[in-house]
Amino acid sequence: MTDDDHDLHRKPLPVSETTRRALTEPLRVERDHPNAWGDHEVVVINEVDDEVREHVVNLDALQCDCGDFVYRKRDEGKRCKHLIRALLVERYVELPWWVSVEQVANGLQADLGVTDDE
């Protein structure tokens, strides 16, 4: 990984609908999932109603296998909600200054070790 790659990992999160969804939706990041191959991959699980979707995120390559990333974000150099959530949980990026902790999903609060009491 080059210095430029490290800079991309640390790029601040933009104020966007995608970032909002990454912060507020009930997404779960699993490091030890069978579909995560190696230390550079995690699986982000999205449970909505009775539907469960799993997406593999490669943290080194800044890629996700979800349709949003594959069809739109990849060519624009943007991040999908799964990639943003994984980068937050794995501490590649910090919770943006403009985000109030009480706005963040409970699961993400636990992953980051923050509560709305702080």
Automatic annotation (TrEMBL):
**In its keyword annotation, does this UniProt entry include Phosphoprotein?**
no
Q: What sections of the protein cross the membrane? A: none
Composition bias of kind Basic and acidic residues appears in 1-10
UniProt xrefs under InterPro entries: Znf_SWIM (IPR007527)
GO MF entries: zinc ion binding
Q: Which Pfam families match?
A: SWIM
Q: What is this protein called?
A: SWIM zinc finger family protein
Species whose genome carries this gene: Halopelagius fulvigenes
